[in-house]
Amino acid sequence: MAAVTAPTHPWAWWGWALVAAATVSLTRNPLLVVLVMAAVAFVVLARRSDAPWARSVGAYFVLALVIVAIRVTMQVFFGGLREGPVLFTLPEVRLPDWAAGIRLGGPVTLSGVLFALYDGLRLAAIIICVGAANALANPRRALKNVPAALHELSVAVVIALSVAPQLVESLHRVRRARRLRGGAAKGWRAVTAVLVPVMEDAVERSMQLAASMESRGFGRTRDLGRVGPGLSLLLVGSVLLVTFGSYLLLGVPDSRLAGLACLALGVAAAVLGLRRSGRRLSTTRYRPDRWTWRETAVVAAATAALIVVLVLQGWNPAVLQPTTTPPVWPSLHPLFLPAAALVAAPVLVTERGR
């Protein structure tokens, strides 16, 4: 009999998806963006389970297409980039003086449409990466494996995620029981006749689950001390560093390295602070997920793809940011294929979700 391999740690999938999204955010070359999107889609189709959350990736692809369409439409009707060859001209509406700088209609240029298309594709790829993480990672297992310092928050989120499925299941049970008893009430009387038993059934099952979990010691916590001022300053400083790094990375030109450095320091400080805070709160876990070499390989593959793009950005930044004024055909650099292959590499070390 073949040995049963444990499912991949949910936070490994989230790490892989977020690093892939960071890789896409560094470029506007549509060829690289499409290659990474195809690699992410391949991993999702090969490794997702049959659970309800795994079937949500299609909605993210639809959302991505809508984002691209909206971005291009906004450029056509309200776009500020009017340089380059003119494709067609729309009737221009004169706006009042208080809307100076905004143009409605007018000439639609090829450069503006291409810029909007490239920018929309990049945002769509980031959305698809997030959707891939949602499709591959069991949300309950992910929340179960959060640091001990975030135990109360994870419990609240798990309860919120469980309310809707619990109510739907209770509704089906109550309606089936009413049909067996010959219930014929309709309209508002049927709503009141169903609502009270549904709420009662949901609360009763929740209380039974809570009692069984408490009897088994699930989630038992033990406070081991107070939070000192040094730990509070560390956590607040990590948030400030992440915020400032994001601002430098997204809003200040030529500050990408400084932004990445601030982000790295902020994330490292947050991890250290959460670990120190978690040591003062002892929490029991039922069948905790193990982080093995497979999870490390999943995250390392995406990180290697990010490093390839960063190296390419230092060698030839123009290939990652193709110009649209004047419009030129995007270049397919030989390093694009290894980067996409590294994003798709987790299929070699993981198994299909269960």
Instruction: For the record, give the distance between the C-alpha atoms at the N and C termini, rounded to a whole number.
Output: 18 Å
How many domains in all? 3
Could you tell me the strand content as a percent range? 5-15%
Note the main sheet: 2 strands, antiparallel
Give the overall silhouette: globular
Task: Tell how many strands the DSSP assignment holds.
Answer: 4
Tell me the layout of helices and strands.
Layout: H1 10-25, H2 30-47, H3 57-78, E1 86-93, E2 104-109, H4 110-136, H5 139-144, H6 151-180, H7 188-215, E3 221-223, H8 229-251, H9 256-279, E4 281-283, H10 293-315, H11 317-320, H12 336-344
Antiparallel strand pairs: 1-2, 3-4
Quick structural gist:
The chain has 354 residues and is mainly α. It contains twelve helices and four strands; from the N terminus they run H-H-H-E-E-H-H-H-H-E-H-H-E-H-H-H. Helix 2 packs parallel to helix 12.
Account of the 3D structure:
The protein has helices at 10-25, 30-47, 57-78, 110-136, 139-144, 151-180, 188-215, 229-251, 256-279, 293-315, 317-320, 336-344, and strands spanning 86-93, 104-109, 221-223, 281-283. By secondary structure, the protein is mostly helical. It has three domains: 1-139 and 288-354, no CATH class; 146-218, no CATH class; 226-284. The chain has a two-stranded antiparallel ribbon. The protein has a two-stranded antiparallel sheet with strand order 3-4. α8 runs antiparallel to α9. The chain is globular and about 70 Å long. The chain starts with 9 loop residues before the first helix and ends in a 10-residue tail after the last helix. The model has no long low-confidence stretch (mean pLDDT 78).
